[in-house]
Amino acid sequence: MNSQSPLDPDQHSSPSRRGFKVVPMRLLLPNIVTLLALCAGITSIRMGVAGRYELAVSLIVLAAVFDALDGRIARFLKGTSRFGAELDSLADFVNFGVAPAMLVFVWSLDTLKNLGWIVALAFALCCALRLARFNVALDDEDAPGWKANFFSGVPAPAGAAIALLPLYLGFHDVIDGPTAAPFILIYMAFAASLMVSKVPTWSGKNLGKRISSNMVLPVLLVAVLFTVLLVSYPWFTMSALVTCYMATFPFSYRSFKRQEAAEAASED
Known about the structure:
Layout: H1 9-12, H2 15-18, H3 25-49, H4 53-77, H5 82-107, H6 114-137, E1 150-152, H7 156-163, H8 165-171, H9 181-196, E2 200-202, H10 216-232, H11 234-247, H12 249-267
Antiparallel strand pairs: 1-2
Helix pairs in contact: 3-4, 3-5, 4-5, 5-6, 5-7, 6-9, 7-9, 8-11, 10-11
């Protein structure tokens, strides 16, 4: 005689239902933010093709904001995963490699025909190579701790911001895209080379983890002021931000070499 009751839920449940795994929301939320960034980047390409350049650049800036948030949300919720890391790299390639290259090409480099397309294509490829090198570097467990404060080359979001500088200036009628195409061509090649170079640049990943109590109010005031300027004078603010960022390269290089020399001296 069968001792199991006809109403026993385990008797009639399928193997697939018994094997179903519940994914916690803390793992999904960072990936949702990454997908929102990807949507912004793809829509940026559409807006660029339609000639709505200011909206297109704004969407890339929005994608950069989402890109800065997804990793921090994942670490805060302890929801980091290999899937999320791979998805983030693919989104970064579209948002900061393909989208900026397409915008600059449609806005300016199209007048140079094939030569302009080659440079735009090279920018996207350099972004892919930079992301691949970054992912490989994550597996290097023997790297000293101080190297976490530096990137090797310019990160993809910063590379996109640098590449779009001519558009910021064009929105203020400082330059004209088709007229300045030969100079923009050289500038785009320079921006592409920054991403694949080994120039040490400061990393902002550890920025904001710990703030001294007497610095809380100044940091809040600077953040509010920057937000107001970005909303009121977006392209002037972005131009100044990119210029100041590139001005830090000599200082980050000197800081990197100093710490590298100190490590070599300690080993000797």
